[in-house]
Structures are given as structure tokens and as C-alpha cells.
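G., the chain you wanted modeled:
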Amino acid sequence: MSEPVGDASDPQRRKDSRRIVVFIAILVIALVVYFARLGERAIFLIGSGETSWVIAGFGVLILPFVGAWIVWVTVRAALAHQHLARRMHEEGGELDISQLPKRPSGRLERAAADELFLQVQKEWEADPDNWRVSYRLARAYDYAGDRTRAREVMRRAVALERLEREE
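Predicted structure as C-alpha cells:
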């Protein structure tokens, strides 16, 4: 979950976003080519007619489908997260970490991240069914270094935002 940088009309931000999209597109294309080659190998093994190779071929044939599913789920989640980030940025609801102390790596100091998390957790406890607050909590978890909970809460924020759009 990347932090939006600058204004959406900022040329540097658009340039950085395009680079990321191009990189992801190249990775997805490379994976599609890899999955196609893997499928070819599977068909070759199945076509050999030898029982052990046929069984191995069916095992290998499953891999491109599993891989494609993983790519699809990951890209779909990334697009949903970016949609929420864009909405939060437009509404001015992003967490402001500009004044918080940072490590040389650019990550927040642990104490600052923990304090930020506690503030946002109180917001969430007051309104847990608000996608905006869930989004902010996911970001706070991310800043605090708890990626597992950040993903879990971000999935909740995506679901809540989707429900709001459907109403």
C-alpha cells in the first residue's frame, strides 16, 4: 500500500504512477508467457502417453491456472486499493504523516507509528462500519509494520466502500 505523494495533478506523481503501471504490465505479460510455456510443457508430457509423464503433465497443467488466478486476485485487489486511495486523497482523508519523525529508511519511527495507530484505532472503534475509517486503520497498521492486519482491514474497507456505492 503505497502512500500517495503530492497532488493528483502533479506531473511527477503521474510519471511515477505510469512507471509503476508499465512495470506491472510487463510483469503480467511475462507471467502470461511463462504460463503459456508451462501449458505447452504440460501438453507435451500428457501427449507422451507414459503414465507417470501423463500424471506429471496434468499436475503441471494446473499450475498456469493457479498462477493466473493469483495474478487476477492480486491485480484486482491493487486496483481496489488504488480506487480507495484516490477517493481518500480527493476527500482529504489521508493520514498526514509529513510531520512525524522518520528513520533514515523513510519509514516512520516506531513510537510515532504506534501513536498514530492508537489515534486511528480510536476513530475506528467509534465508527467501525465506515470504509474511510477502515482505510485509515489499514494505513496505520501498514505504518506500524503490521502488513497482515493492514491487508485484512483494507479488504474490509474495500467491501464497505463497495456496499456504499451499491446503495
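The two ends are 27 Å apart (CA to CA).

Shout if anything looks off.
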